[in-house]
Amino acid sequence: MKRPVVNFYGVALPTILISILGLVMVFSASSVKALQDSGSSVAIVGRQALLFLVGLAIALFLFRAPFAFLKRMSTLSLVLSLIALALPQLPVIGKEVNGNVNWISIAGFTMQPSEFAKLGMILWLAGVLARHEELKERQAPMGPSALAAQILPGIIAMIALILVGKDLGTALVFAAIAAGVLFVAGIQIRWFVAAIAALTLMAVVLILTQSNRIYRIKALLDPFSEEHYQNAGWQPAHSIMGLASGGIFGSGLGAGKQKWGNLAEAHTDFIFAVVGEEIGLLGTLTLLGLFAFLLLSMFKIALRSQTLLERFFVSGVALWFAIQIVVNIGSVTGLIPVIGVTLPLVSYGGSSLIATLAALGLVLGVAMRDPEVKSEITRKISRSLKYSQK
């Protein structure tokens, strides 16, 4: 387990296993809805499988990309992210889903640009922070105010564009990822505490200024109450029912009941409830174990990275995944209000899946640039080729 190559496999293997489990659960959770909407129970999972292959191809391409590509993209990613986040506000292609204007529709294809902007933000932050550390090493440090002047306008602009589309959940995820990357980069604690305080204040103000958000908070406290059950408490209540009815071993794949019209978004934001209902506590713990191994491997890759840019980037991707996992499962289990965040590699959603796989392709590329990892994998490939020729 101490060999560096284990970190490479610790990202690659869980990614494949979680993706396969995700496809199986998307099929199970979406079959009823797909049959009702299109007459085919495999319509939704078929799209997901196709998008998985597209994401895998992009991941393989980015895996082979050199460090120069990563460095170049880190300087362009802020502009590209801002453009992506502005697209949903264009009247021709912008699309509203569940009250949020954070989607675009072009030639019949629907996309959520904010998923790709998360990756762009992490790349940009990694680049800025790496240059800041390099200046410190050259005895020309950039003061905290100068660093803040470089970082804050970009973060504020991205969050503002998301809030224009009324997507508070995604805005909070962006802010949390940015705060996490700054913490990993070694920002002074007082600045980190100030950022958390500002984030908390923003969330409180935005919640208190919207009556439906206040109602969601109340419903979270008692989703089964007579007042909330038929409204904001419906999703969290039926999610908890699904998890509770699964027991240790689950009701069996395909045998879940909540997906039959009771649990909305069963194949997207609430797929973890279907996992718990159909494959039980053992299934959910196995999934969490795979996620834990994936995150641990990414942080270990970050520690062994050859450059500061790669270190901050891989740490940022790991934080992105960790935050989304916590938020998604917290919503499903009723610990936090329903925010509407996908479970990485598991939930249905092409934008999320492709962006996630692209990020993992870049992470594996960073791992492969470790001389020990590269030499061991090259040696194993050579040995395998010799055996196959015999």
UniProtKB/TrEMBL annotation:
It is an enzyme of class 2 (transferase). One of its GO terms (biological process) is peptidoglycan biosynthetic process. Pathway: Cell wall biogenesis; peptidoglycan biosynthesis. It is a multi-pass membrane protein. It holds the Pfam family FTSW_RODA_SPOVE. GO terms for molecular function: lipid-linked peptidoglycan transporter activity; peptidoglycan glycosyltransferase activity. The chain crosses the membrane at residues 7-29, 41-63, 75-94, 106-130, 142-162, 168-185, 192-211, 279-299, 311-339, 345-367. It is found in: Cell membrane. GO terms for cellular component: cell division site; plasma membrane. PANTHER family: CELL CYCLE PROTEIN, PEPTIDOGLYCAN GLYCOSYLTRANSFERASE FTSW-RELATED. This is peptidoglycan glycosyltransferase.
